[in-house]
Write a structure and sequence with these properties.
globular, 22% strand, disordered N terminus, eight-stranded antiparallel β-sheet, alpha+beta, disordered C terminus, single chain, five-stranded mixed β-sheet
Length: 648
Amino acid sequence: MRAARVGAVSIRDLLVIATTFSLLSLFLTYHLGFHATRLRLNAAAEAEVAVVGPARDASLPLGDLRLILKKLEEEQLERRSGAMEVKLHGQLSTLRRDLPLYSRALRRAGFRSQSNISILQKNGNITRSSDGIDTEAWCLFLCMMPLESDEDSCLNEVIPLSLIPSQKIGRIPGIRRALWSRDGLCLTRVRLRSLLEPLRPKPCYVLPGQYEDLLTAADGPRFNTSWVLKPLAGRPDLLTTMEFFSRVRRKEFSESFEGIVEEYIPNQLRIFGYPVSVQCYLLITSLEPLRVYVYSEGLVFFRQEKEKGYRKILSKSWFLSQLWRHLSKTSSPVRLAIERTDEALVHILLAAQDAAKGFVERTSSTAQGKRRFRCWNCFQLLAVELVYNTSLHPEVLEFDGQPSMRESWRGEAVGSGARPPWHHASNAMSSLKAAVLLEMLKILFASNRVHEDTLAALQSAAEDMNIGIAGGNCKAWHTICLSMDDLRFILDTQRESMHLNDFRRIYPTSNSERYSNLISDLQILPADDYSRNARQYLTPKLHVLLSRLEATFRAQEVPEYEYSYLTETRLNSTRSVNTTLGVGANRLPVHVVDAIGSVINTYVLTIRRKNASEGEEPLNTTLRHTVCSLRQKYSHSKAFNSGADLCS
């Protein structure tokens, strides 16, 4: 008995000693590994992993990382220099509305005019037309489907294919569920309400699931507010709390109502007495990790009063730059409004990532089990509608995943065939839409080589961070371990930034670390049923590093928050005219006007016109010459009858 007890005690002591030794080893590896990297790595280890960071020895070469970045860049730029083909899929009505303007932008960006088009018919059949081109030799896939259509019909066209990095897909899986649909956007805003103080989104309820929660809120602290009822499709309706309960008592508002109910935004911004809403264009080139741009110009719609349902006044609209100029004249904080708008958009997109990931995993299920599909090639252009209160705090109303690109009043007849009095502004809107599409294509298909700049930026960021690169052999002391996909994302981020033009990146930026608390809080929120098993976040992983890289990339660039104007140049401030230049000095005032005719600036040009013989050499009569004359005939029926050049 004593021998057995001694043996048991000995085994227990050995286990305690082994456990203590293991914990001590882990402690030393974690805390002293910083100094361990100063040891010379052998040749096999150097070939296996490239390590960058403050713990590196200066003698360790960066050749491996340079070669990795160069190889990844060559893969990304493959097939961007040759003929670029387009593959289209969509509903006929949407194609008829948007395709003409898209075609113009595509031709200007260097794409072939022929397209591989598949049209989804109402009966579910698909009609295809390839115009004689290789159906798989495409580099851009555009999905033109409305909200109520089946999004899977677009994704099924490309997801089964073996995509290469240079191919771009114009639809991000999950955007419909998280942002585009009214109920999805409402749920995304609900996720933010518990995290953002004090400027958090207005209350929103998805019915019928949150019907009881709505009644509790309306009968309690929200009794004196007004509510906006939005069905999943159709016009919204504005009600006071008393009107809402009156409908409930009369059973005009049933528990089975499908839609959303959100709190009305009080004290909305008014211009000349009219309530206004703003439409901006967003370009998302990656949802996770997040990379998003906003176009500097937008549209401002003047709306009717509550009695007429806040409908748009078609004959009265502005560009966003006109709104900012108008507000700046009243000493309004325009720059603060732009900053708040960027923050509001980034907040919603960060909150939407979880719902979008759940959607992707659910739709990518196979017979063997669920498979998560992350589309590194996907992008999406969205239109977002916002309203501001009198303090210029923005509230996001809706997202449109297929913004209208109809060419305004292009050959359309009104009444007897005359164009409306505001058709000049409509043409300017068409120019705005065309500019958005063209600059979007320039960003997506940028071909600059940036691997050297990226390497230098990583070295600079490594002064404050321990960064491991490649292969899954990162050490315990590394702050972050970057995969090949992470490096591709960083290369794309830098390459796209060289072709922004009137787009402005709102995430990631050099000051993105202000979103760190929100990103951390979103990770601990309860997941929904679709995304609970797929919560592998990439935005939090790269968040701090991307902010440091952006600070390095943008150190010498111009400040943000500059916005452009849609303008034209005229010699007369009221209308476009021709002018005649006389012999001698001519002083011409040149007016730069905006889309509604307001003069922004005036320049005076002095043009001196020489006479016919000034500066010419004397006629050399020894050379052979040809004498020409122009004969013109005048008739009463026509002012001029073109003559012929007679040379002898």
